[in-house]
Amino acid sequence: MRVQPAIAKDSRSLASFWPSVSDWCTPAMSWSAANESAHRAWVDLAAEWQTFVGRRLNEDLHLFQELSAAKAPEEVWNAWSRFWQKAAGDYGAEYSAIAKLAACFTPHGVGADTASHAPTGATQPKAA
Fold it and tell me: What was the pLDDT predicted at 120?
């Protein structure tokens, strides 16, 4: 890509100190690998969440079908209890899956750099 020459040769003009396109290309190209990795991680996380929400909405609709078809209070109770047991298991598994996907956002793991920020024994307040 060819850069357009500065319009004015005067050092006090805006065009003389404004960075050219070539000044921005090199840093932008070096950031692309990091951006691609972060983008892929977000896409994976969003796809996982959308799939989960779709499955849970189908379960919700299925619950309404079961409740409307119930003929006795025991059938209603059984439908509700099955629904909530499955929901608890599904949400637990999904939180685990999301946590695994989100772990890629922290390159060295959670708390990797907190040791340097931990208070030393000399700065901790003494218990009364």
Answer: 52
